[in-house]
Specification:
Belongs to the nitroreductase family. This is Oxidoreductase. By secondary structure, the protein is an alpha+beta fold. The chain has two domains: 1-18 and 181-200, no CATH class; 21-177, 3-Layer(aba) Sandwich (NADH Oxidase), CATH 3.40.109. The chain has seven helices and four strands, in the order H-H-E-H-H-E-H-E-H-E-H.
Length: 200
């Protein structure tokens, strides 16, 4: 167990318990083609309603034009650390099918695909951090995202670097105790707010 392993009420797979979202990335690390394709394949094989696969991903490696455009769309707080990641991936959902009819749950399905990419990163010994702090309109304009598609999140992927490399405020977040809402306040049965009658 690493110091960042989640303290769970029941055993879960180490891939889930050990996954966390750092902000300190190794700015010297580069992502090889084999690793990159592995991440993309993990996302590609996610489940979706009617197998519609409403997700699209804008993928930039550090230093290339796509990376820089995605980085520019991030809020300053996220730019302050995400610039050191090896990869920035913008997850985009197709909201309507070709005839204009709304897709069934495109955000949900795109979230599943993104989660699979994140878990595959961890399986490869990398780390990933998902962000909602970005300017969707700026991203849409700079990377030519067409109408009917909505940018949902940006994921930074890379190799972990020491927390000490971060500014003090970010360092505090990096080393803070990992927490989640208790099971009894999250999972209900019978009626809303009634805890599920299970014991770990």
């Amino acid at each position: 167990m690493s110091p960042r392993t989640a303290t769970t009420t029941a055993a879960v797979h180490p891939l889930l318990a050990d996954r966390w979202s750092p902000r300190s990335f190794d700015a010297a690390h580069t992502l090889g083609d084999e690793e990159l394709v592995s991440l993309l394949e993990a996302a590609r094989w996610a489940p979706s309603a009617y197998n519609a696969q409403p997700w699209r991903f804008l993928v930039g490696r550090r230093g290339d034009t796509t990376f820089l455009r995605i980085l520019d769309a991030l809020v300053p707080f996220n730019q302050a650390w995400a610039h050191a990641s090896s990869l920035l991936v913008a997850a985009v959902a197709q909201e309507n099918v070709e005839d204009g009819v709304p897709q069934p749950g495109p955000s949900y399905d795109t979230g599943l695909a993104t989660a699979q990419l994140v878990l595959q990163a961890h399986a490869l010994g990398l780390h990933a951090h998902q962000m909602s702090g970005f300017d969707a309109d700026a991203l849409r304009a700079s990377l030519g995202v067409p109408e009917g598609f909505r940018p949902l999140s940006v994921v930074a992927v890379g190799a972990l670097a020491p927390a000490e490399l971060l500014p003090p405020k970010l360092r505090e977040r990096e080393t803070a105790v990992r927490e989640r809402r208790p099971v009894a306040e999250t999972f209900f049965a019978h009626t809303w707010g009634t805890p599920l009658p299970v014991r770990p």
